[in-house]
Amino acid sequence: MGPPPEVPTEIWLQIFRLASEDRGSSLESLRVGPNDRRLGREESVGYKKSLATKLSLVGTCRRWNIIATPLLYEHISVTGQRRYSRVLGGFNRDDGASAKYRNMVTRLDLVCLEEGRGYKIAIELCRAFPELTTLLAALAFTKEDEPTPLFDELSPKLKHLYLLPGSSSMWMLKRVPFSRMVDFLDNHPQLLDISTPYAFSEPESSEERRDWSGKSWPTIRTLVLQNRNQAEVLSACLPSEAFPNLQFVNGLSFGKDVQKSYRNTLAQDW
User: Fold this and answer.
1) CA 74, CA 16: separation in Å to the nearest integer?
2) Which of 52, 118, 54, 57 is nearest to 83 (CA)?
3) pTM for the model
């Protein structure tokens, strides 16, 4: 009787992914739940167990190390400035391995509720991970922070964006020019889900107003609206075909009655 057949790498990878799955990190609760849901200040039990399993896999043997290492780095959770310093310090070593590991990170969960630091930390981390496809961030801003530069650091490969208000009073002080949001959508052609707490400022003059009549973002499946202004400006400024494949609109932060009203309005327009 000969040796057992060689198991393909793809099969091992699928086995390892199932063994280390963290179901508690699903985006579904953010997609369909109340918009003011905050990420926890500590890594979840599920995330810690998943990370421990991945560490065991990479330490088993050389072949498993090669297969499981991308799983180990694909999802990074950062809670607080101390954790941020360790993560960024580890990824910013001046060697080829650090660059390779940075490129493996496709999802970042970030919680930094320290005013004056959260925004800067988010920018530095997003700049460090050029292959990022998913960002979940709960941040606190100060009056001096200009929020839009964060958009410039997000990978064009981004698919899921959930920015949650770590301090709602500070977030509401910030308004993003609607033209800037249109540019962001144009620059991220793979985006599937979007949730931001920013209110939009409409163009105040004909010179500022662009012709958005032909705009369309067919990849967008989910819009999570965190304030009434977002629904009003989207309906007022964009054509009915702007989101041809939109499947879900969440406005639960308004309350159920308002959610229903705005969902009906958006359904008529889109």
Assistant:
1) 13
2) 118
3) 0.85
Q: Which residues of 97-121 are buried (b: 16+ CB within 10 A; e: fewer)?
A: eeeebbebbbbbbbbbbebebbbeb
Tens of pLDDT, residues 133-159? 999 998 876 667 777 788 999 999 999
CA–CA separation, 261 and 258 (whole Å): 5
- In the numeric block, the tokens 């990074």 are attached to 76
Q: Is residue 214 pLDDT above 80, yes or no? A: yes
Q: What is the pLDDT of residue 35?
A: 52
Which amino acid would we find at residue 150?
L
Going from N- to C-terminal start, the domains of the chain cover 213-270
Q: What is the DSSP string of 150-175?
A: HHHHS-TT--EEEEEESSHHHHTT-E
Question: What is the band of 75 on the pLDDT scale with cuts at 50, 70, 90?
Answer: very high
**DSSP run (H or E) holding 98:** helix 96-102
More confident residue, 181 or 3: 181
Distance CA 104, CA 246 (A): 29
Burial pattern 41-79, b for ≥16 Cβ within 10 A else e, equals eebeeebeebbebbeebbeeeeeeeebbbbbbbbbbbbb
Taking the mean position of all CA atoms in its chain, how far away is CA 259?
23
State the pLDDT confidence band at 202, using cuts at 50, 70 and 90: confident
DSSP state of 107: E
